[in-house]
Design goal:
four-stranded mixed sheet; 287 residues; globular; alpha/beta; arginine biosynthesis; cytoplasm; Acetylglutamate kinase; binds N-acetyl-L-glutamyl 5-phosphate; 44% helix; binds adenosine-5'-diphosphate; 9 helices; single chain; Carbamate kinase; ATP-binding; 13 strands; transferase
Length: 287
């Protein structure tokens, strides 16, 4: 009897959640949502499977999801085994010719295929790509000091639109192609921002390993203005890997993306909570 009561309570809660989700489901019907999955947010196989189900659910309710991933920790692991140490400047890896080979191998290889496989196991049709496929992400060199680090200049929108029409889910490794045949390493956040901006996406979600952008007291700032981001960066409160994230968020909303959220990807169903409930967490930067 007691068990039945608990079960009934569960059903009531589920029904309430579905009811709460309705306006969000309507708002996001046929929307484009770009999700950046950071290397630190790609933990356990269960976490990956849960992320894949969330992406699949988005597709099922009519959203066009695009996944762009990182994999910094996985690159570090292989470089360490090869005895190579990288320097980072403002959250970006200084990338020489030998390093870019390792970066491409790790990102376009194991990391990309792990995500593709997880989404397909959840019933989706994910297609793994790097920026080299059909010239998806063409880059210039970002800064000579960073070596083979790319700044995206052109995105092949036609390819992405064809995949949306076929209800396929693009999973993109942040590797760019140069005009002279170079291979470029692109920071995952910057690649996701460039794709979101080109698509004028409804939402850009940056999934990471912290609960949002924190202020000097260590509290998450739920809504951030451009001026606050600039000030917190100048003061060194936004540092390291959070610099490309917040700059990407600003660039994306300036380029026509409706909103960008920085959320904790380790939280179960982080993507669904952010898109389809009143309980979105993390930090949001709006246009
Ligand atoms: N103000 C800040 N608020 C939150 N995190 C910050 C802040 N400044 C720097 N960080 C750091 O940024 C990291 C996220 O960037 P990064 O390690 O590149 O993540 P990912 O691999 O998910 O892209 C956090 O783990 C944190 O250490
Ligand atoms: C230029 C640059 O820094 N590229 C990144 C690409 C991977 C990435 O962005 O990974 P996360 O999202 O897990 O940090 C790198 O080499 O680490």
């Amino acid at each position: 009897m007691k068990k039945q009561t608990a079960m009934t309570r569960d059903y009531v809660a589920t029904a309430r959640t579905l009811n709460e989700a309705l306006p969000y489901l309507q708002r996001y019907d046929d929307a484009i949502v770009v999700i950046k999955l950071g290397g630190h947010a790609m933990g356990s196989d269960e976490g990956m499977a849960s992320f894949a189900r969330d992406v699949m659910l988005m597709r099922t309710v009519g959203v066009n999801p695009v996944v762009v991933h990182g994999g910094g920790p996985m690159i570090n692991d292989l470089l360490a085994r090869l005895g190579v140490v990288s320097d980072f400047v403002n959250g970006q890896r200084v990338t020489d010719a030998a390093t870019v080979e390792v970066v491409e191998m790790v990102l376009s290889g194991r990391v990309n295929k792990r995500i593709v496989q997880a989404i397909n196991s959840a019933g989706g049709k994910a297609v793994g790509l790097s920026g080299k496929d059909a010239d998806l992400i063409v880059c210039d060199q970002a800064d000579p000091e960073l070596g083979f680090v790319g700044r995206p200049t052109d995105i092949n929108l036609n390819l992405l639109q064809q995949l949306f029409q076929a209800e396929m889910i693009p999973v993109i490794a942040p590797i760019g192609t140069g005009r002279n045949g170079e291979t470029f390493n692109i920071n995952g956040d910057i690649a996701a921002g460039a794709v979101a901006a080109a698509l004028k996406a409804d939402r850009l979600l940056l999934l990471t390993d912290v609960s949002g952008v924190k202020n000097a007291a260590g509290d998450v700032v739920t809504e951030l203005s451009a001026a606050e981001v600039e000030e917190m960066t100048r003061a060194g409160i936004i540092a390291g890997g959070m610099i490309p994230k917040t700059q990407t968020a600003l660039d994306a909303v300036r380029a026509g993306v409706r909103a960008c959220s920085i959320v904790d990807g380790r939280v179960a169903n982080a993507v669904l909570l952010e898109l389809f409930t009143d309980h979105g967490a993390g930090s949001i930067i709006r246009a």
